[in-house]
Amino acid sequence: MPPEQGGGNGAAMLAALVGKGSASGLAGLAGSLIGAKNNSALFVALLHSGTISGHLIDKFDLQRVYHKRYRDSTAKQLVRLTKITEDPKNGVITIVVTDEDPNRAKELAQAYLDELNGLVARVNTSSAHREREFIEQRLNTVQAELQRAQLELSDFSSKNTTIDLKEQTKATVDAGAKLEGQLIAGESELSSLRQIYGDQNVRVRAAEARDAILRRELQRANEQSVQGTEGQSFDVTHPYPALRELPRLGVQWANLYRTVRIHETVFDLLSEEYETARIDEAKSIPTVGVIDFPNLPERKSGPHRFLIVLVSTVLSIILTAIYLLARRFWGELDAFDPRRELATHIKSTITGKWSSKKDIDHLSAPH
Q1: Which UniProt keywords apply (predicted)?
Q2: d(CA 144, CA 265)
Q3: Cys-Cys crosslink for 30: which of 15, 92, 209, 252, Cβ 3.0 to 4.6 Å?
């Protein structure tokens, strides 16, 4: 029985092997591989293929066994001695091999099964193997692109101190709003204290120092140099990007982050496909189901003994009749008949040459 075709790729490739050169014929044959009947027809064609017959000719040295000079003549003889039939109802394939040697007949029938099984397994395995190699090659390419995209995102984040721009923008805006509110409230308090106590009061100076700190923190968020109360300049470079730089950096960061996410998604999908392909490669070795294994024949399939006895008897009667007629005809010939003289002369010539040869061999032999 033919093996079950899971994905159909192996059956299509096998159909291509049996094709006669017509593209439409290949398409029709490959497209009809749905039922067991069509699969059986395909495997019958495979059993008749030159690949299997060539292996059998080499394995059993059939060119010598059949006394043939050319391989194509040997293959034709093997086809004549092999009968491969398919049951149209259930698709079961039957192989019958006829040979002079019963052991060789059994081994040839078994070899047909082994060669068919090996051909099916080889084609299906190579298909799964090529699929696995393609996915593996694509996976390596995507992995290299993912690593390159991750390095670009890492360099950009390290250079611009960007980790998560959405959260950083929200935190920066909230912090700036809070600082600005505190600064407005502090300036209002400072203005009222100056009106009450004057510029030299301790509370006024404390409020001025507090406002200076708030102003410096607010300016630091915008990556600006801050002037102190005495006019000195402080380096207030903020460890995070300035608020005014966030829109420009956000576009670049979003593009790099999106590229990384795309490569990560593709890599995850290909990883799953790769594992599936490896499993399919390990499982895609179908075997032909054998219902009855080849047996050693107990009796000859032909010719029948009755036919041999009958033919032998008829031939014996004919030859005996010819001999008796020839002997009677020879006896009735005259002694001086030219035909009798010619036959006697030929007989004496042959007998004389045979005797001379024996004498020469006897003289040349060592004594």
Answers
A1: Coiled coil, Membrane, Transmembrane, Transmembrane helix
A2: 14
A3: 15
For 142, 145, 168, 251, the CA distances from 149, given in Å and listed in that order, are: 10, 6, 22, 16
3-state secondary structure of 143: helix
Provide, rounded to the nearest whole percent, the portion of the chain with pLDDT above 90.
Answer: 17
Query: Torsion angle, CA of 14/20/24/26, rounded to 10 degrees?
Result: 0
Please name the residues in contact with 108: beta carbons below 8 A apart, sequence gap of 6 or more: 56, 60, 82, 97, 99
CA dihedral 67, 70, 75, 76 (to 10 degrees): -80
Task: Provide mean pLDDT across the span 212-236.
Answer: 53
Quote the pTM value: 0.45
pLDDT digits over 272-320, tens only?
888 888 887 777 666 677 878 888 887 777 777 778 888 899 999 999 9
Rounded Cα gap, residues 251 and 239, in angstroms: 20
